[in-house]
Amino acid sequence: MNLWQRMKIAGRVLTRGADDDMPDGIKPPARASVCDPLSLSTVFRGVQVLQTAITGLPIHEMRGGVKLDTVSSLVLQPDVNRSRRDFLADMVASMVIDGNAFVRLVRFGGDIVSCEVLPPALVVVSDDGSDPAAPKLRYSYLGKDYTANDIVHCKFLNVPGRLRGLGPLSAAREEVEGAQMARDYKAKFYTDSSNIKGYLQTEEKVTPEIAKNAKEAWKATGTAADVKVLGSKLKYVPLDMKPADLQFLETQKFDTTQIARLLGIPASIMLAAVDGSNLTYSNIEQSWIEFADYTLAAYTGEIEELFNRLLPRGRTAAFDWDSSRRADMSDRYAAYASALGAGWMDVNEIRAREALPPKIAAPQPEGVNNEA
């Protein structure tokens, strides 16, 4: 079934609307989160890095561990109404922020024709069984119930006994909210009139009346060129704060490092300086490889499980990690030369890894018949 046929069938099966699949009187109220973690620049950057890293990876189909030349239409474009990049970006963001990604399978005649990523905040997961080890899951979305046959539930971190998965931001919500409160306090510091900008000082005894008169005289309105006059041997002492203290640089640096560690993103990618670290090309490259193995793999593994469910029996989907673990040009060419000399790779396989077309062998001249 090609993409055009899937689009026509999916259009007949589902009509996108707010109230079409929801009985009257049970529409859930809109639920706004107490704090949006994406309002933090560090979190926004971290989610964007994860989305960009994963959506840019090629996906291949495998059979028996061997890569196939073709890719199914459901893998090329799971949602007929959106691009695969948007589809994968939604799944990644759902698992980062909420820890769960819910994908609704659209069927026609028993065949899956499209997939849709549901907002995790609107999905309720319940267990109709009595044994947590063998749950009978039911998913409710906008007033309609679905079974595990209709919803693919991808969890970032699976915990036994929990119906929903845990994500990095949902599991450490207090740390994220603490960073938000520090940011809000910094913004409020410059506009809050209760913050002391300076004080009047004298070595003599000051009565409440003198203090009141001096304060009112100092706060009296005037033009920009006015000169303040102090009496009773008063002098104005401004608060001496360093620029770094006024910008809360140490707090921002600490919060950036904490969130980068929470999301599993190397400090070099988040542009966060780590005290005592000596960044060289070799250890930066190693950190990127670890980033792919221990952070990105947690998301791509769930996405591969989704695609495996969509593919025919015997076929699996796998992300191509070669581009994310690729060394510089000289090291790469040296590795290719070694593989070519050892005989376990040929020229066309090497050119395919570099996204180059196969090299066509030059035609051999035909032999000349010298017989009379």
TrEMBL record:
It holds the Pfam family Phage_portal. It comes from the Bacteria. InterPro entries: Phage/GTA_portal, Portal_HK97. This is Phage-related portal protein.
